[in-house]
Amino acid sequence: MRAWCNGSLVDPSGPAISVLDHGFTVGDGVFEAIKVVDNRPFAITRHLRRLSRSATGLGLPEPDTDLVREAIDATIDGQQLALGRIRVTYTAGISPLGSNRDTKNPTLTVVTAAAAPFPESTKVAVVPWPRNERGATAGLKTTSYADNVIALAHAAKGGASEAIFANTAGDLCEGTGTNVFCVFDGTVVTPPLESGCLAGVTRALVIEWYDVHERPISMAEFATADEVFLTSTTRDVQAVHAIDDRSCENHTVTEKVAAEWRSREPQDTDP
Questions:
Q1: pTM to 2 decimals?
Q2: Which of 12, 73, 148, 235 is most buried (CB neighbours < 10 A)?
């Protein structure tokens, strides 16, 4: 593992940011998780574009993406990562202890470490707390993850590795760190961005590489899906074999989508 903070490499286990950093005190920050394959970041341009969108959506200055690239290179250098994960975090920096912010000196950190592949399939759990698709941070990848921490703990009690949220309209939204796809009569469907879900990089590539329909999916309809799969930077395309107590053993279409992903991904590290 290697870490970088505000211009230089730092000890990953040592102090690096101020206790007054607004990202630490109130979660006033955004981040990206980027996959590393054979020591090269995957889809870095898409991730950095989303980092900028999230930052400006939160009211932060636009990050210097050239500096982010340099920091990423510095943290990969010297490692041998067949599979790894980069965490880029960008916050408002030192600010008052309340919600008011001072964005004169934002904080930028990058950490790169080895990663392990996810299993081919997983169990998910629907949680009772909705995403607010009309909220100020809807669709932004912010560091305010308390809702996700609570939801994942709830899901883990039932043996699930991911929690699934509806939105306030009662439609399927997303997982804590994943986008959700359903298969109905052979057709792949996923919620539109208007549902409040994050514009996932893997989600976008699957939509580009496979025939996917974007439309609202009610939670009642979700419960009848022939197949369900998740996408994310770390999971790629992962089948769902159970939703709460319901078994979902049919992965016929999901396997085709996963195969398409495996075929396309090695062709271009920055699609």
A1: 0.95
A2: 235
